């Protein structure tokens, strides 16, 4: 009798277990969140003590997002920096918030072609940031001193052959420094445009398929790049992403390759073949010790609802290039981008607007934003009350024969921009103003360009000595007579390549 009762109980419970097993992962959002442990919270302070405000703010956002959502991300290639980001938008109706870019050349292009392609990447990244997105940069660096082709990136290099590259004074070391310096020029453009960057060099170092992989002294290579870009080139807009491969049958454990918390801001793991094991996540979370963690690359889109339940501390993911369409169905793409746990570019922009609205205002004014405050006047004399006051991220306009803004005529208008710049070097800077028509430029209260007259596309220059790290007030005044209207202000120095003038906080 007792056996019969146990049998009836078993037969009653079995169908319930079977039904529960059929529940799809997409319903997991209705279940309570259960995690095996909670990481120790630490302040979101960049490893670089001189990090820009934009970089610090971004790191703070990522830290606050942990456990609340995951940023969507999409990588694009050097040769076509907007291709798959656009395809994701077409497939799902939403842009990913994190746009991954490439600075490494792997197709044996000429130097001129590489320079053109890298400039296109930088231009796209600035547009992406200005439109409300986040920028990530990958660098598939060919072995310094070799041709820029895939075979010289994807190669096994013995420990004895590697050591000279991290030994100061050797020809190999000099080649490494030259390669880093070449990339620094493009990252400086992003710095000068106020763009924070998730910088992830030498990724998947715990595997042996890149020349920097499986090295006993990998930290030496990381430190060389960190010091060169941060100390020498003052690239304070970078957030340093240390990004191993998931420790599977092809890769070692994380810990032997970790360069240390003092030179890392974010930890990420590359996960392919839909292999989102709990151990990959938990081991990285422990090593991070409170720093944000992300999925640096994946071929397959993860199930956002499942991540919310079991791996909720990932703060971003990034699908790798063409694998978006090759490894995922249209339904999977739409499901991921439409999930309530997934953060799109539009979601991110709204979150920043809400956060900025909650910030206390400055005495006598509103919260300062990156860029210049532009006062637009409906006359050519900068007189009276401005028709419009707005923030412009940089002074680079070509209105042709159109009005510069609603409520202002296409002819006979003027603008006064005010803001702050902070040079990276202590040396003489040259400012170039190209305008149609009049323009005046003041730096630190000193008039260095004065061409207040009718003119068509004429460029004027003025120079001034500036001190690194010092904030200088800048004022630019412009008027249009009639016909075409345009203004572009650039600045450069012996160490800084020409860049559009952008205002800082």
Describe it for me?
By secondary structure, the protein is of the alpha/beta class. It has 12 helices and 21 strands. It folds into 2 domains: 322 residues, TIM Barrel (Alpha-Beta Barrel), CATH 3.20.20; 129 residues, Jelly Rolls (Sandwich). The protein is 30% helix and 24% strand. Strands 2-3-4-5-6-7-8-9 form an 8-stranded parallel beta sheet, sandwiched between helices. A 6-stranded antiparallel beta sheet has the order 12-11-14-19-16-17, with no helix packed on it. Strands 13, 15, 18, 20 and 21 form a 5-stranded antiparallel beta sheet that branches. α4 packs parallel to α6 and α6 crosses α7. The N terminus is likely disordered.
Instruction: Please count the helical segments.
Output: 12
Q: What's the structural domain tally?
A: 2
The CATH superfamily of the largest domain turns out to be Glycosidases
Mean pLDDT: 87
């Amino acid at each position: 009798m007792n056996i019969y009762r146990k049998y009836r109980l078993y037969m009653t419970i079995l169908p319930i277990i079977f039904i529960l097993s059929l529940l799809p992962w997409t319903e997991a959002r209705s279940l309570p969140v259960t995690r095996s442990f909670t990481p120790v919270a630490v302040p979101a302070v960049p490893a670089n003590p001189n990090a820009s405000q934009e970089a610090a703010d971004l790191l703070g956002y990522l830290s606050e997002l942990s456990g609340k959502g995951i940023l969507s991300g999409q990588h694009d290639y050097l040769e076509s920096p907007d291709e798959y980001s656009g395809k994701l938008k077409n497939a799902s109706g939403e842009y990913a918030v994190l746009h991954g870019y490439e600075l490494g050349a792997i197709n044996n292009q000429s130097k001129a072609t590489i320079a053109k392609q890298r400039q296109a990447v930088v231009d796209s990244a600035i547009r992406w940031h200005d439109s409300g997105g986040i920028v990530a940069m990958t660098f598939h660096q060919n072995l310094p001193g070799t041709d820029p082709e895939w075979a010289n990136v994807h190669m096994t290099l013995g420990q004895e052959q590697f050591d000279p590259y991290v030994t100061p004074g050797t020809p190999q070391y000099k080649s490494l420094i030259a390669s880093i310096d070449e990339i620094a020029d493009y990252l400086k453009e992003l710095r000068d445009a106020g763009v924070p960057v998730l910088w992830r060099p030498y990724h998947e170092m715990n595997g042996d398929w890149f020349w920097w992989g499986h090295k006993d002294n990998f930290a030496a290579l990381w430190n060389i790049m960190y010091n060169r870009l941060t100390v020498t080139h003052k690239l304070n807009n970078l957030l340093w992403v240390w990004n191993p491969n998931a420790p599977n049958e092809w890769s070692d454990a994380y810990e032997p390759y970790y360069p240390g918390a003092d030179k890392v801001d974010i930890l990420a793991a590359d996960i392919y073949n839909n292999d989102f094991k709990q151990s990959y996540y938990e081991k990285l979370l422990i090593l991070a010790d409170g720093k944000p963690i992300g999925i640096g690359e994946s071929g397959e889109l993860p199930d956002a609802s499942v991540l919310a339940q079991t791996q909720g501390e990932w703060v971003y993911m990034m699908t790798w290039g063409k694998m978006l369409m090759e490894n995922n169905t249209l339904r999977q793409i739409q499901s991921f981008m439409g999930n309530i746990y997934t953060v799109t570019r539009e979601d991110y922009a709204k979150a920043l607007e809400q956060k900025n609205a909650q910030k206390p205002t400055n005495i006598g004014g509103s919260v300062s934003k990156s860029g210049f405050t532009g006062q637009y006047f409906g006359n050519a004399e900068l007189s009276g009350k401005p028709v419009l006051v707005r923030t412009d991220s940089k002074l680079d306009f070509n209105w042709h024969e159109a009005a510069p803004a609603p409520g202002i005529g296409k002819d006979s208008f003027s603008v006064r921009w005010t803001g702050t710049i902070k040079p990276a070097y202590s040396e003489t800077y040259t400012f170039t103003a190209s305008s149609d028509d009049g323009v005046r430029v003041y730096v630190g209260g000193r008039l260095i360009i004065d061409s207040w007259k009718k003119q068509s596309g004429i460029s004027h220059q003025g120079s001034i000595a500036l001190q690194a790290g010092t904030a200088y007030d800048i004022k630019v005044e412009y008027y249009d007579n009639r016909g075409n209207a345009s203004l572009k202000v650039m600045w450069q120095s012996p160490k800084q390549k020409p860049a559009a003038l952008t205002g800082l906080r």
